[in-house]
Amino acid sequence: MSLDDDIGRILFSRAEIESAIDRIAAEVTRSYAGREFTVISVLKGSCVFAADLIRRIPNPLELGFVGVSSYGAGTRAGEIELHFLPSKREIEGRDVLIVDDIVDTGRTLQFIRTEIERGGASSARTCVFLDKPSRRVVPFEPDHRGFHVDDEFVVGYGLDFGGRYRNLPYVGALRPEILGAPRESRAKGG
Length: 190
Ligand code: PRP
Hints:
The protein is of the alpha/beta class and 190 residues long.
């Protein structure tokens, strides 16, 4: 039994992902111009991307994590619950780069950025592996992105379906029979 069998189509291969991460890492390195900063990885989806990204950045940096859950369709403020934030030392007075696997409605990253700013960060920028702009419900533009994606459910490279597929080294679309349920209820991906 292999996860690969459930994939109908590959969107981004391992090689395409590698070169996108090289590009993003170069952008991030340039934008912090040798300065120290803090990378905040949004659990769980971004752990794969964050791990690959930081190893391509030569600046001194600290790594922290933030845990959030979103509920229902995520259409109202307050439906995002913060489980934990990085320590004060990792945020206060520091330049912070928030890293996530995907931006969809934009609510999660907007919420986290506000919390990081409230925690006293000198600056808070955002970096996403995938950007699904057609699903946005709040105005949100990431500072760095890997790829744009259309509004279809994608898995792999950190993105899950029912907790599975995060460990695929590429990004793919699941076969329709695997996805099963009506698309509207699972339009996000990851
Ligand atoms: C996903 C993804 C983002 C968020 C994006 O997380 O990792 O954090 O949704 O959606 P938004 O732009 O509509 O707010 P998810 O809640 O699936 O948790 P996970 O990272 O643990 O898979």
